[in-house]
Amino acid sequence: MADVTFTVDGKQITAPAGTLLIDACKSAGIEIPAFCYYPGLSLQAACRMCVVRIEKMPKLATACTTTVAEGMVVATETPEITQARKATLQLLLGNHPLDCPVCDAGGECELQDMTFKYGAADSFYTEPKNHREEQNWSPVVYFDRPRCILCYRCVRMCGEGMDVFALGIQNRGSSAVIAPNIAPSLSPDNLAHLDCEQCGMCIDACPVGALTSGAYRYKTRPWEMNHVTTVCTHCGDGCKTTLGVRSTSDGAEIVRGDNRDKSGINGDFLCNKGRYAFDFANSQERITTPLVRQPNGDLKPVSWEEAFTVAGKKLRELRDTRGGKSIGVIGGNRLTNEEAYLLQKFARTVLGTNNVDHHRTADYVTFTQALAGQKGRTASWNDTKSYPAVLIVGGDPTNQAPGTAWNLRSDVRLNKARLYVANTSEIKLRRQARAFLQVAPFGYGALAGYLAGDASAASNAALDPTALGGFLEAVKGEEKLLILIGSELRGADLKRLIEFGLTIPGAKFALLSDYANSRGAADMGLLPDMLPGYTPVPTPGPFTEHNIPSEPGLDLLEIFDAAAAGNLSALYVVNSNPVARYGVDPAALKDTFVIVQEMFLTETAQLADIILPAANLYEKSGSVTNSYGDLQLVQKAGDRSGVRSDFEMIVRIADKMGADVKALVPFGKGLRADMGQSRGAQSGEADRHAVWLTANNLEPKLSPFDPWAILDEIQRLVPGYDLLRLQLLSGNDQHLEPAAAAATASRRDLVLPSGDGLFTSGTLGRFSPALNDVQRYQAGEPLIQIQTAAD
Amino acid sequence: MSTITNSIFTPETAARFDHLVTLYPVKRSALVPMLLYAQDEVGYVSDAVVAEIAQRLDLLELDVRNVLSYYSMLRTKPAGRYNVQVCTNISCMLRGGYEILDHCKHKLGIGHKEVTADGVFSLEEVECIGACCWAPAMQVNYDFHDNLTTVKVDEIIETYRAGKGKDVK
Predict the structure, then answer these.
(1) CA within 20 to 30 Å of A515's CA: A55, A424, B65, B85, which one?
(2) Which CATH superfamily hosts domain B82-161?
(3) Is residue A784 part of a domain?
(4) Euclidean distance between CA atoms A666 and A664, whole angstroms
(5) Chain A residues with CB inside 8 Å of B69's CB?
(6) ipTM of the assembly?
(7) Looking at the whole model, is its pTM more than 0.80?
(8) Tens-digit pLDDT profile for residues A722-749
């Protein structure tokens, strides 16, 4: 829309017509306070805090509902306005408990900030306050009624944002109260409860401490934590999450997960797992000592030195006597890119084997090969926020990638995007869809064929084949189309779907996978036939310098077949649980020397000869790549004494094997770097200088355990990983497009979707008390009512 | 023929509700009248009433409860057979509405929004019932009684207790 110019507090501001006054002022650096206004949600005008004086208007007007107009003259801070806001606050505080000293929101509370600013500390009410006990709505959502200021943010967030509509307002006037959707009369314990996705977005939106998190309430004060911004370890969306961390006697415990500054790729959003399921890191079941199996079968705690020595010696011996090809390596989906790259480099250059694989949750090899030679055809996650049309084939983002579902709902609501859903099930996103096509069972291949022009596939493609024509026409009519593909589509089907999509000039693609770095694991070459960047093993290109065996190795299933046949001398498993995931017969590994790096005694770890206690993604630094190919920075938040990062352990094992560590991790090249001494270290410039050096890829990597040394190599060698350091280090996401070569031969895709929903997260999720609580709650088990610190 | 199978309402009321939803541009506009008629028939808005009305209007039960809880004349617990509503709004107050209310409380042995043990009477203090000219006034179910005195209230209550009130459901 055309721009209009208006005056606020004497300052000329220009903004597009139709902009809300409150937003226009915010853009111009003028803050107008508001409780009920929340960008992206419908307008409520319930709190009256944003009142401003607009010339020629008879009364104070609400800035959150007024759109800017040409020549408008606005005052935002005058004694009159201050008085009005103060009066509003006095009304709000009339029945507010003012229990700030014990309230979770204390220090982060908008009501507290406003009271501080406007000084509305006097109360003119003589009536006793209407106190109600705190309510336990679900294991993760608690409601403290007297603190509520009835801004309706949670109600709108739940309804409009989440499409769940689990919250409402009941009663009237001063008795009005937020109510969840299970009424006390319908609940076995006669208390109100929530039947919802347990995302905690209501808590996030709450400007006060009325809605509090089951994980965090009464645990600590916001200023007593360190806040570390990193990437969530759970699904493939890769949301930025801020972890609140507190020192303990054996490390640093994560107390809170939230979306504190909303600066990440995920915007406002965080789901149940991102918000609550960090607690596996604090689990008492974690392994914190290296364990080595003794001849009598017992696992004996040993020192790190001994564990690494045994591991290195044995691996070296088996490599030298039985050959590298007798060793298998399995990496994880939650390793950093640097670790995944290092692991395959270790396997290929130190162990001398291409028997490298990971639990694949989407067929990225076919995906990148089908897009070989194309530029700008892969979608960033950011595209899901604004693309005018989106087609989802397969998958169920609401459960598998909740952030994607949030973005799509917002895109439909705010940008009137057209959503087309093709799925075998009636997934929830069909409620936002312009068209929903119910695909016949196992019909994705036929659908891809039909879309690609094979009319004979119609009968197997959809439950109602007559609906196909209209659906195809509507999709083809789109000029800019985002095609999101579920992991159900693999190999030839996936290729055919992408070929169809490529006929639409403005189409972009994304393939959804299941874990924080599933994409990175594939990109970094944790595959038997592909080197990093989908470089085929027989034609190593930039990786020629590594002298990698030219024969593709065994894939994950073949590795276990080899073990069963007695041909696998050693298996090195890093952060993966293939034994449970693939139902491997434990007897298959009886003749194999197994080293496992793991947090918990998983099914795989139980079979190990050496168990090395590992740090998780919240306890290390590096980068991860989400399903879409967006690279983000991972920062160390928590810590646990007795565990080490997978990166360090790989390097130490290589060292004990007698490998040239400097060839494995090209560290130490910055020894001559200017470390700030010349720039006035005493005046505090050293830190700033370090940032500059780092941003320009000049920071000294003095340690073989520095992941940035491997990042240098990734940047140098992996096709498509030409990333911007400053972008990464400043916590921003950047979209990467690994440039694969076109497919030469068909291959097994071996995709096994995780089957995770909103409240499960692979093996890791089993060790999260929060997820277990929510699962029990969702299954109808009664809640245990807990007494609070404040009682 | 009701559009809802196994309606909890009588065929007449169900038919009335079927018609009611057709009267408004949006279905949910029928919510408040439907709640009132349902309360008249069932005696209060039960969980079953909420469920069926939500189904009839394509609403969530939560939406129905949100509206239901807003209005004080809608109740979610059974009232007595005779619901005595005493006005204490300004005209009645000036003419002794509170004495009438206190008398009722004493006579029936119950307070505001309470029901007698035998379930015959319930008592409510209400805002203006539109009988200011004959204040103080009260309403028993849908019957008005005005120009009240404590003696008159006793007679009225006894009449109902004897089952002779004309508003017997």
Answers:
(1) A424
(2) Glutaredoxin (3.40.30.10)
(3) no
(4) 6
(5) 170-172, 179
(6) 0.86
(7) yes
(8) 899 888 988 899 999 988 888 877 888 9
